[in-house]
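Transcriptional regulator RhlR
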Amino acid sequence: MYGNYPEDWVQRYQAANYAVIDPTVKHSKVSSAPILWSNELFRGCPDLWSEANDSNLCHGLAQPSFNAQGRVGMLSLARKDNPISLQEFEALKLMTKAFAAAIHEKISELESDVRVFNTDVEFSGRECDVLRWTADGKTSEEIGVIMGVCTDTVNYHHRNIQRKIGASNRVQAVSYAVAMGYI
């Protein structure tokens, strides 16, 4: 399990073996379609749903993916506030499917690759900010506005991140950063 969910939630999820009853996991084994979290979806596992909400994982979606070896993966996106409307869900479907497939592929490569990645990579504060905003789907232009820097500066940080982490593009850099726990 890779991600940036709260550590206490991840530990609780694993200790309680919630993957066995998690309806999003069950769904991912039989479908490649994304699924929207709801009270109805989690009706059969109220403890799981309650504890997820207690960890501020209140509204979300799960996007299954399958790699070339047939392994199942799932990208879950969650937030504390603002339920995901059906309109937003429809708008996110294509992007989450592509992102889930890319992340799954890269994580599979990391897990099976004999190369050892440098896990002692140190990012500057600005590089961490750029990584986080990129993971949130922001463009270089948007990140520049948020951080109060020009687009060229954001792109400079992207190049440094990719060089440090050994990624060939931004999606790969974010995937590696998530897999290695940097974000």
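thats it. The first strand starts at residue 35 and ends at 36. The CA atoms of residues 142 and 148 lie 10 Å apart. bye
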